[in-house]
Design goal:
Two copies of one chain form a homodimer.
Chain A: H1 4-11, H2 15-22, H3 30-42, H4 49-56, E1 62-66, H5 72-85, E2 92-96, H6 101-114, E3 118-121, H7 127-135, E4 141-144, E5 155-159, H8 161-174, E6 180-184, H9 190-205, E7 215-217, H10 222-232, E8 241-244, H11 247-259, E9 269-273, E10 287-290, H12 293-306, E11 317-321, E12 324-326
Parallel strand pairs in A: 1-2, 1-3, 3-4, 4-5, 5-11, 6-7, 6-8, 8-9, 9-10
Antiparallel strand pairs in A: 10-12
Helix pairs in contact in A: 1-2, 5-12, 8-9, 10-11
The structure holds a DNA duplex (16 and 16 nucleotides).
Chain lengths: 338, 338
DNA sequence: TTGTACGCGTTATCAA
DNA sequence: TTGATAACGCGTACAA
């Protein structure tokens, strides 16, 4: 591995000058620069990242934290992040938490020690911990999916979850549904909260006041969706439609429904968030709100990179992207039969 | 950030002694060690990774290269790798190549510069390049999915693809199929080669000699599966069953089949590799060979960590894991109707 | 058992 | 415009 010093010696220059060329700094004679560049290329010089980091006390690595890389939504976001990071040649340090707060805290610790240049995170922490953990991260942080609401300034990218949720519910209303239940996410998780709020609002606008038991808070895992739906199905007065706040819980709900021998949408309608079906092979295509996952990743990467600039303003930057509505075949139209 | 020197000064010790305690080295008085440990804990000392790396000229980061993180198979493998790495606190540097050889080469370059401790890779390179690239990586490399065959010594994790493929074909044979076509993967890609070989062998054992045009080499992407199947479907003498060497190509095949108004399995049977359906929501559950993805990741991580030990033998370590056969509803039984 | 002193490869400060 | 030199924080011969 050829070093700065080697190049300098060969050209009878000081390491300083060579270093300046390597780092594209001013104050180098154009001709000298040419000579150095040639030598660098000739020897295929690669700067030693470690030395560089020790000196600058930083790195260009971006840390990414997701709850579950197995969830296609997060996988796509990561792909988007990669695309956004690649041109700037920022490596990506990944951590999968399985929704465990402990693992997330460990990851942040790890990232701190690695002196990552920035963190992009779909946090599973609760609001208090988010604040404590990420204000002490020592680097720019970009949130997505779960965006803290009481943290200022904050960088975040998301869709308008409340509006999206309202849209989904209004679609169900338009199909003649009234008893629209919700399998929500954890309380305090911003996207879950917003989706619940949107659901409430759309119902309210339709003059419907949901009972307390129309809502069940899951944890975004399949099992909780199954549990929630099972519970709903024990009632005498069944819902005609159920919304699930994410894909996995919707899948769990399907299991519960079918386990009871009911059919979708004949006996019960189902709608969801992020029930994306890339292959078009889902047995039942779920009517769903889709987040632009890859775009979310790219924008998050951009925000994170922008925050690297020395004079980047330390103000809140909240980017809201447009969702799409995907009509599936999981909702029955009751208007004809009513 | 408290440093070694600070601790040393506080305890009236030298940095060497403190360093020895931090690194669990011998030759430290038990009592001194206690004092130091207490101080370390009190100050929540975190060693500076960068300084450490500069000194040791290495890191504990493991680089992972996959063609497509969006593919559930790879996502699961990564999860497995993470699980294997977490106990040893090895961070994971991720690179997604989108099957692009250039990006893979860049990733390896990047990893070299980062002085990663090891690389775990599902390579998209061709054999010659694999050899050249990864022998020069400067760290232990563990292959999975695509395992180079002319590289010794090599560390690799895979299933017995030939046997798995034979098993799949024999199942089709048992259902009365004879004209069994194959949508294979790229020539030279070990898993693709092995799957083709297994297909050939099973057919041969049944006394069937496939025509040259029974096989189409795709690139593991959905579009190529669709193209291959479209081509198959233009023939006068249609296949009764088709195998696809991975999930995405199978999905593409489904599209092509349905685009022609044919039904699976009534008009045509389809079988595949890795067409895993975690949610149980696939419209048609494909009969498929499933790789133990998460286990592959864990084993790869273990191999990689084992290779870190200073006196790790530099010999080939090929681990073969068991696949499973998942009977779906995509294969028609012709024995009754024949 | 402990301490001294040097060097890892780079960047940054200052003087030339 | 260039060069000498001092850090950055740690690990490790070697000396004590």
């Amino acid at each position: 591995m050829v070093k700065l010093k080697d190049i300098a010696r060969e050209l009878n220059l000081s390491t300083s000058t060579v270093s300046r060329v390597v780092n594209n700094q001013d104050r180098v004679d154009p001709e000298t620069r040419q000579r150095v560049m040639a030598a660098l290329k000739r020897h295929n010089y690669q700067p030693d990242e470690n030395a560089r980091r020790l000196k600058t006390n930083s790195s260009n690595v971006i840390g990414v934290i997701v709850p579950d890389i197995t969830n296609p939504f997060f996988a796509q976001v990561i792909k988007g992040i990669e695309k956004g990071l690649a041109p700037a040649r920022h490596p990506l340090l990944l951590c999968n938490t399985d929704e465990s707060p402990e693992r997330e805290l460990e990851a942040v610790q790890l990232f701190r020690r690695q002196k990552v240049a920035g963190i992009i995170v779909a946090t599973s922490l609760e609001q208090r911990q988010i604040r404590k953990t990420y204000t002490a991260a020592g680097c720019p942080v970009v949130f997505f999916d779960n965006v803290p609401h009481d943290l200022e300034p904050v960088r975040a990218v998301s869709i308008d979850n409340a509006r999206a949720s309202s849209e989904l519910v209004r679609f169900l209303l338009s199909q003649g549904h009234q008893r629209i239940f919700l399998i929500g996410g954890p309380v305090g998780e911003s996207s879950a909260d917003a989706r619940e709020q949107g659901w409430r609002q759309a119902l309210a606008e339709a003059g419907i006041s949901p009972g307390d038991d129309w809502l069940w808070h899951g944890d975004f895992q399949e099992a909780s969706g199954e549990a929630a739906m099972s519970r709903f199905l024990t009632r005498a007065d069944l819902p005609t439609a159920v919304c699930a706040a994410n894909n996995f819980m919707a899948f769990g709900a399907v299991k519960a429904i079918e386990a009871r021998g009911l059919a979708i949408p004949e006996d019960l309608s189902l709608a969801a968030f992020d029930a994306h079906d890339p292959s078009g092979l889902m047995r039942l295509s779920l009517t769903s709100i889709l987040q632009p996952a890859e775009a979310i990743g790219q924008v998050a990467a951009d925000l994170c990179l922008a925050a690297q600039k020395p004079n980047a303003p330390n103000v809140s930057q909240r980017v809201t992207l447009e969702h799409t509505f995907s009509a599936g075949r999981s909702v029955r139209n009751l208007t004809g039969s009513a």
